[in-house]
Design a protein that fits this description.
alpha+beta, 172 residues, seven-stranded mixed sheet
């Protein structure tokens, strides 16, 4: 299986929307966004980011035979005091393609790309603490836990804890 990786562009807006909504529908417990709310939007926020090629924000995609099978995003906030950091967001690999290092490669390429942005010194992420496979991937790339939030999300009476992780440029 040949896997290619590339930054998504404006022309990929609908591809992005499809896989992002799929991720929210298949794994609602692993994301802060809600499928039912997001599907109602005419455009997801990162569709606009892609279409406008906004600086400091990107989505990496993984493709097999032209089909998008995974994504990993990066978001740099534009607050003066936090310009030195950004966040990994929306990490997802289709179930049919898990177990082939796609998630690890997407994460690695996204962190590598983030550190090319002038001024970025650290990359953060948050992950549902019970998502052991994701935690393993993040640790494998070099992320370390720096915090924990008990009952951070609540959906349908269920609580989900968050683990906060970071990697510093000099340690990547």
């Amino acid at each position: 299986m040949e896997i290619t990786y590339r930054l998504l562009e404006g022309k990929d807006s609908l591809l992005y929307r499809t896989i992002r909504l799929e991720s929210l529908k298949k794994y609602p417990q692993f994301f802060g966004s809600n499928y039912e709310q997001q599907i109602q939007l005419p455009k997801l926020s990162f569709q606009t980011v892609l279409e406008e090629n906004q600086a400091g924000k990107f989505i990496y995609g993984a493709f097999v035979q032209g089909e998008i099978v995974g994504l990993c995003g990066f978001f740099r906030n534009n607050h003066v005091k936090t310009l030195h950091r950004g966040e990994i967001i929306q990490m997802y690999v289709k179930p049919s393609h898990q177990g082939h290092q796609i998630g690890r490669n997407l994460l690695y390429k996204s962190v590598e790309e983030a550190f090319k942005i002038e001024g970025i010194e650290q990359v953060l992420l948050e992950v549902i603490s019970s998502n052991k496979s994701a935690l393993k991937i993040y640790e494998n790339v070099g992320f370390a836990q720096y915090g924990f939030h008990e009952k951070a999300y609540k959906e349908n009476g269920n609580y989900y804890d968050l683990t906060y992780m970071q990697i510093m440029k000099e340690k990547f």
